[in-house]
Amino acid sequence: MRRVQVLLVMLVWGGIASAFAQTGKIAGYVRDAATGDPLPGVNVVIVGTTLGSATDIDGYYVILNVPPGVYEVRATFVGYQPVTKTDVVVNSGRTTELDFELTETPMQIGEEIVVVAERPVVDPERVASSEIFRPADVAVSTPGIYDLADVFDLTVDVSDGHFRGGRTGEELYLLNGINIVNPLNNSRAFQPPTIALEEVEIITGGFPAEYGNAQSGVVNIALREGPSQEWSGNVVVRLRAPGRKHFGPSVFDSTANPYLQAFNSPEDWMGDSGEGSYYGFIGYGFNPPDSLTGGRIAYGMWQQARKELGRNYGKMWDSDVQVALGGPLTSWARIFLSGRFQSEEWVLPYTHPLETRQLLGTVTFDVGSNKSLRLAGAYNTNEAISASSSFWNWLWDRAIGVAPQKETAYALGLRFSHALSGRSFYEVNLSTLWTRFRQGAAVLDPNRFREDAADAGVWRYYNPPDQFRVGYMENDFLDERTRTWSLDAAYSNQLTSNHLLKAGVQARLYELDVRNRRNLSSPSDAQDEFFKSNPVDLGIYVQDKMEFGGLIANVGLRLDLYNQNID
Questions:
Q1: Contact criterion met (CB below 8 Å) for 91 and 70
Q2: Do 9 and 558 form a contact (C-beta atoms < 8 A)?
Q3: In this predicted model, what pLDDT tens digit does every residue of 275-332 receive, in sequence order?
Q4: What is the DSSP letter of 277?
Q5: For residue 97, which phi and psi values (nearest 5 degrees)?
Q6: What is the pTM of this model?
Q7: How distant is the alpha carbon of residue 52 from its chain centre?
Q8: Cβ distance 303 to 266 under 8 Å?
Q9: Helix/strand/coil for 500
Q10: What distance in Å separates the CA atoms of residue 16 and residue 27, rounded to the nearest whole number?
Q11: Distance from CA of residue 253 to its chain's centroid?
């Protein structure tokens, strides 16, 4: 029987109003510098964009749907000197308060006053447990910030990717409004480099009603957009000098590891263990005429198993190259592209360096004075190693004793927004996320069993008395694929200077395809994990952001419906 689960989330007080579409707003008053009277009809525009507004009878203006970034904002009025404020920072879901004072003057046309905007010491918008980081600013004051994981280290509420007070996997990650959470294991599919980021917002409490499927935290990640005037780019190259990646001596140094000296001669193998001669432990199937011959055969086999004795390692350079480039394509379109290319040696010698490749980008189209279209995409592939904590099973045979892992993901999002008036707009966001995770030793076919390779009559897994095995293959084979289709639509209206109303609907369709074969040591131990599923969830919400001077509150109502689509 298929079941539909319903969750109703009631009033949320003190939350922040971070927009799912990752835009903010600029609002304030324009007054006469001499009298303090409000000035109606003043044009306030964001320089270099099509965004702007005009003041009402109270001198109040608001510019909605502003992408996060740093801008110049200009106020102009006939008979008054124009004023431009620079370094105006806009954050996702936040209100940037920007007031102007214009001076009545008969100055010549073209003259204006330029003022550098100052951010308040105390952020009045921070009414919940949230922090916003702009990598461009952080990189100047805090060296060593290269990707999203490094940004997490800057907040006290997150430790090693874990949100305090919650459990792992209860977070929601959004990349330009795209849900990048793997629905199978709740991990994030991308680790964007800071060179590609405009800002990162980390929310650990007081979630607005527009956020569903989040209990521990919400992370809003905004990619940079290409500049509209000229092309620009930057490159970051990091290198790690060769050297071992663990404490202590080499694991292949016989002088530093006593167990390697215990059987380092034929005579050592001639001894008796109490359960038979030592050479019998490695030489299954041999029937030597005497103990000396048995010891020599066993010692020769042990030398093959310990062929890396005395091997030096840690000779490779690790590299991390990050590239970013952006600029105008036409007068109405601009692009930003970023790439990251990493190559790292594993902690012990492996068949090849582990590589990560990541591409991210945005394309912004100004399709009209009140419309915009934004395309965002990301691709990631990375390699890793899964190694059992029983290191004696793979230390001397890492080619087949460990399981290589490969994760691949791509995401694509299209967002359209349309300003119906100076105080209202709607936006529609359609996105998809595809992931695949694979794990398994390359030497063993997933339709065979480890005991097939062990049935040789000469040795079993090459198991010497010191228990450090050779030929003991990793026997879990994982193949997990997911696709997430997302549709988000929302309407926002600045009803008054004190109320910003937002209502929306969110729909998710998941395609889960799991083809795992575990514990392939023998037919009796094998476990198959095969299933396909297409869960669906739907969310409807309405919220009101109320701003009264220093008092800011967010009140919302949300309804969630889940259908697991399981018989």
A1: no
A2: yes
A3: 667 777 766 556 778 888 888 888 888 888 888 988 999 999 999 999 999 999 998 8
A4: B
A5: -80, 125
A6: 0.83
A7: 33
A8: no
A9: strand
A10: 17
A11: 40
Pairing of strands 60-66, 24-32: antiparallel
What stretch of H or E contains 399?
A: helix 398-401
Helix, strand or coil for residue 495? strand
Residue 69 near residue 77 (C-beta atoms within 8 A) = no
Half-sphere exposure of 487 (CA within 13 A, CB side): 7
d(CA 97, CA 87): 13
* DSSP-assigned letter for residue 150: H
Residue with tokens 């993901």: 409
138: tokens are 């952080």
* Beta carbons of 270 and 292 less than 8 angstroms apart: yes
Residues 499, 546 contacting (CB under 8 angstroms): yes
Distance of alpha carbon 419 from its chain centroid, rounded? 31
* Sign of CA pseudo-dihedral 272, 278, 280, 281: positive
Task: Tell me whether residue 540 is exposed, middle or buried, using C-beta atoms within 10 angstroms of its C-beta: 0 to 12, 13 to 18, 19 or more.
Answer: middle
For residue 341, give the nearest of 378, 385, 380 by alpha carbon. Answer: 380
3-state secondary structure of 227: coil
At 177, the amino acid letter reads: G
The Cα 134–Cα 196 span in angstroms is 11
Round the average pLDDT of the chain to a whole number and report it.
84
From the list 356, 326, 352, the residue with the least C-alpha distance to 343 is 356
